[in-house]
Design brief:
CATH architecture of one domain: 2-Layer Sandwich
Number of helices: 4
Distance between the termini: 108 Å
Structural class: alpha+beta
Strand content: 5-15%
Helix content: over 70%
Number of strands: 4
CATH class of one domain: Alpha Beta
Low-confidence stretches: none
Length: 199
């Protein structure tokens, strides 16, 4: 019996000890789980904050790209509109070159050329349909030869016989020299003044 009592006592001690070890293990496990939850919560908040920061940066980049693309699209539209206006101006210059008022304009273009040309051995190339009139006009001017040029429609080309001097004075060449400034002026007049009016 004594042995049974000893076994029972030992069994109870072992059972209490197991309960203490188990309770300690549970407390430790709960502590580890709680620490893991805290760490996971901190990591989740940091990840969410990082993600929020990255999303804000991405949204800013998207807005900047959209603004840049909108500016390019706007500029493209403005340039296309200005180019359309300039094409209409070119068409109007061609119409003027075929009009009844062109002989007077051609006379002015020829006078400009003669004012800067050397005084001897000048060859004037003019539109074929204006050649006879220009020859009659040049009769009183010494050293000037007038030639018909079927490829020339809107002005005069002056040159000397030795090839040292060449001056092109046509409506299209004058417009070509002003085209860049005319394009800027079109864009300013068509768009920037309207934008200022809306502000």
């Amino acid at each position: 019996m004594e042995q049974l009592a000893l076994f029972d006592t030992m069994e109870r001690k072992i059972a209490r000890r197991c309960e203490h070890v188990l309770a300690d293990a549970r407390r430790e496990a709960d502590s580890v789980v709680e620490a893991a939850r805290r760490d996971a919560d901190v990591a989740r908040r940091e990840a969410l904050q990082q993600l929020d920061t990255e999303l804000c940066e991405l949204a800013d980049q998207c807005r900047m790209r959209a603004r840049g693309q909108a500016a390019l699209d706007t500029l493209g539209f403005q340039q296309a509109a200005a180019d359309d206006v300039l094409r209409r101006v070119e068409a109007e210059l061609k119409r003027v070159a075929r009009s009844d008022s062109f002989p007077g304009i051609l006379d002015a273009l020829v006078d400009e050329v003669l004012a800067v040309a050397p005084q001897e051995d000048i060859i004037l190339e003019v539109p074929a349909e204006q050649a006879a009139r220009c020859r009659d006009r040049a009769l009183g001017i010494g050293g000037v030869t007038v030639l018909a040029n079927s490829g020339l429609t809107d002005g005069v080309v002056a040159r000397d016989g030795q090839g040292r001097f060449r001056f092109v004075n046509t409506l299209s060449s004058r417009f070509a020299r002003l085209r860049g400034d005319a394009r800027k002026l079109c864009i300013n007049r068509l768009f920037e003044e309207r934008a200022a009016a809306h502000d």
